[in-house]
Amino acid sequence: MYAVAVNVAPIFLLILIGWLTVKAKLFKAEAGDVLSDFVFKIAVPTLIFRTLAAADFHGASPFKLWLTYFTGVAITWAAGQMMTRHIFKQDLRVSVIAGISSAFANNIFIGLPLVGRSVGSDGIVAISILLVVHLPIMMIAGTILMENATHKVTGGEKRSALAVLKQVGRNLAQNPLVIALVLGLGFNMIGLPMPVVMTTVIEQVASMAGPAALISLGMALTKYPIRGNLRIAVTMTAFKLILMPACVWLMAHALGLSPAWTAALVLTSCVPTGINSWLLANRFGIGHSIAASTISISTLFGVLSVSLWAWLLS
Length: 314
Fold this sequence. Notes:
The chain is mainly alpha-helical. The protein has helices at about 1-25, 30-55, 60-85, 90-105, 105-120, 120-155, 160-175, 175-190, 195-220, 230-255, 260-270, 275-285, 290-314. Helix 1 (about 1-25) runs antiparallel to helix 13 (about 290-314), helix 4 (about 90-105) runs antiparallel to helix 6 (about 120-155) and helix 5 packs across helix 9. The chain is globular. About 50% of the residues are buried.
């Protein structure tokens, strides 16, 4: 258990440091946005490129990995949405926000550094493969479901699924994570040695990804207060931290994933809710309090869930 604590505690201490820097007014919350941009556009893509350029995939198929993870997402999302709709008697649009809040893991800012510390390079390979499709799939599903829900509740014009896919496709072509994956895989296939100077620079930038991501997340958390609809937020937090990783673990064993890939997927599925659920709520103008509260509560209790799952996996 001590070894687990050594790997998990620094993750949440760095988040706390980021949160305290804003609360102590050492930095403005907007500084976290700049740091977050650096993480998403430079540091994490560099880490993905470095990992995939030197990775040995051992002939493993990404499709089992994706099926494992997104089965957990689908079950948890459906449970969260149905619970909010039929038990808590909420608007259909609020139910969709609650569902995505229960299943949208913070893979980039917490999952990636956690897996790097706990699993190592094989785990980073798995998360890199997941990250390329995670955001597009989640945002496509969330957008389509929210537009359908909005149309049913308020009427008005509804975009087709094809229109949503085209928009996401355009965004995907400019996504730094996707570009890094394509370049990393291309470099891997060519097999050319990387110059020593370039290797040193890439290593130094990649090493910033984890700490910078966690500190920027802590700074961003000051924007997501815990308020309103606490019963729903607590329920969605339980689904996120317990139900989703349990589903992923069962699927990983059913499909025979390697121990490293299983550990990577379970650990990244048990991390707190990502801020994209709040961004979706903000875009459609409903469900802000549930999304914000779930983000903050799941982050607060995330240290317990991550420690538990890391201990079980060990």
